[in-house]
Amino acid sequence: MIMSRSTQRLQRIFKQLAPEQQETLLTFAEFLQSRLVEKPMPQVKHLPRPPNESVVAAIKRLAQSYPMLDKGKMLNETSRLMSEHILRGRDRVEVIDELETVFLRHYEEFLNEKTT
After folding, report:
1. Domain of 67, in residue numbers
2. I want to staple 84 with a disulfide (CB 3.0 to 4.6 A). Which of 58, 90, 93, 114 is the partner?
3. SS in 3 state form for 54-88?
4. Number of separate domains in the chain
5. pLDDT tens, 70-98?
6. What angle, 0 to 180 degrees and rounded to 10, lies between the N-to-C axes of helices 75-88 and 55-65?
7. Contact assessment for residue 91 and residue 66, using Cβ atoms and an 8 Å cutoff
8. Angle, CA of 98, 59 and 116, to the nearest 5°
9. Domain co-membership, 22 together with 62
10. pTM
11. Torsion sign over Cα 112, 94, 79, 63
12. Neighbouring residues of 65: CB distance < 8 A, sequence distance ≥ 6
């Protein structure tokens, strides 16, 4: 595991302190940690899927439904699906179904990162 410079610096300082000073530093760190305000878990805004929705409209709807997701992380998958629809003629309903799966999977990964 690669440690940040701050982590390495803190470990170096900690090792140089006497045991009672180490305990004081830990107490202070725990105090700072206790002051952290936990943000509420973002909720999905399930927007209904309209009939005859286009693939582009589906991507926009899903982006609004999952505002907490980093769309850049999904760019390859969403672009691939869009290309399959436009360039290869893949059925739009099939592509939209897969897009919904992609967004849901990324949301589950997001939740998993937040809870671990």
Report:
1. 55-115
2. 90
3. CHHHHHHHHHHHCCCCCHHHHHHHHHHHHHHHHHH
4. 2
5. 999 999 999 999 999 999 999 999 999 99
6. 160
7. no
8. 70
9. no
10. 0.65
11. negative
12. 44, 45, 46, 47, 103
